[in-house]
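Structure (tokenized):
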């Protein structure tokens, strides 16, 4: 799908905790009730999380809990409802970054667990903070997390239909993207600013679907998830494009170097669009400004600025 003209939205900083979440980016929502279903899910999760944030919970804990709630929603490509890779297996990646500590942790291609963000949470306190497939499996066992199959009937049907479609076209059946993921929906993310002024960000994904086994997404890299004391960012879209832009880290560094959050988004997304990138991001800065941007048709985001709830969905 070609990239679109960059679009950036920002809310002026106000006192108090701030929260923004996303459920992916891509082409326009289609199908009866699709937009209403996404909005209902995002708003419900946002209401739940903001009550905890306003009640004094730390930004890091809110991000962890928010990622878990989004991972548990089968509408999104993270945790339950994640897409299948080329070999028909589900592999999950997730990352967490604590802004005040400027500490990143994550897991890559973890299997047979419900919430990969839990592994990223545990790794925040470990000397080895990013684990790949084998290490993630060992950690899952060490933590006593129950085995879990995140496969849903819808994702299985999508994968089977794509294999049949590929075979009918004479293409290699196991190297094509799952049809439903051509819209790139699903990667989830949470960014929070708490009452003490602490920032945190988290991102979780099942990948882009149909990819080569061993492919690594941006979500478990600082390219897709990054935070310090000045700003926090979670990205979504085509992982390779996000990595090429090093988008999350670029946005945070620009804010640290003196850009306002909106200006950092405007400049970074103009650059990304000029290079034909297909991506989106959400962010908050230490003053309480909220921003989101995209080069795609839509980004599925919702926010609470302390005064009210809103979202990026039109209509």
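Design, position by position:
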């Amino acid at each position: 799908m070609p990239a679109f003209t960059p679009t950036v939205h920002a809310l002026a900083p106000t006192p108090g905790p701030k929260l923004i979440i996303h459920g992916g980016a891509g082409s326009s929502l289609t199908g009866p009730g699709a937009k209403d279903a996404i909005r209902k899910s995002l708003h419900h999760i946002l209401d739940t999380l903001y009550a905890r944030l306003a009640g004094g919970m730390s930004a890091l804990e809110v991000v962890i809990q928010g990622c878990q709630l989004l991972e548990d929603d089968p509408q999104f490509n993270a945790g339950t409802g994640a897409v299948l890779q080329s070999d028909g297996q589900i592999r999950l990646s997730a990352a967490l970054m604590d802004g005040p500590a400027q500490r990143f942790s994550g897991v890559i291609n973890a299997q047979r667990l419900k919430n990969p963000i839990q592994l990223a949470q545990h790794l925040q306190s470990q000397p080895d903070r990013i684990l790949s497939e084998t290490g993630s499996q060992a950690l899952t066992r060490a933590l006593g997390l129950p085995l879990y199959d995140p496969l849903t009937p819808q994702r299985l049907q999508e994968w089977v239909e794509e294999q049949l479609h590929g075979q009918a076209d004479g293409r290699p059946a196991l190297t094509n993207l799952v049809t439903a993921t051509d819209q790139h929906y699903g990667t989830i993310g949470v960014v929070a600013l708490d009452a003490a002024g602490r920032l945190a960000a988290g991102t979780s994904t099942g990948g882009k679907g149909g990819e080569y086994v061993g492919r690594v997404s941006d979500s478990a890299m600082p390219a897709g998830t990054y935070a310090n004391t000045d700003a926090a960012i979670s990205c979504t879209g085509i992982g390779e494009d996000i990595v090429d832009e090093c988008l999350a880290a670029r946005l945070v560094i620009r804010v640290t170097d003196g850009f306002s959050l909106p200006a950092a988004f405007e400049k970074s997304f103009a650059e990304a669009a000029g290079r034909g990138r297909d991506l989106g991001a959400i962010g908050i800065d230490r003053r309480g400004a909220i921003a989101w941007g995209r080069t795609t048709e839509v980004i599925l985001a919702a926010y609470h600025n302390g005064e009210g709830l809103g979202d990026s969905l039109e209509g």
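Reviewer-requested clarification: Residues 7-307 form a domain with the Glutamine Phosphoribosylpyrophosphate, subunit 1, domain 1 fold (CATH 3.60.20.30). The chain is about 30% helix and 25% strand.
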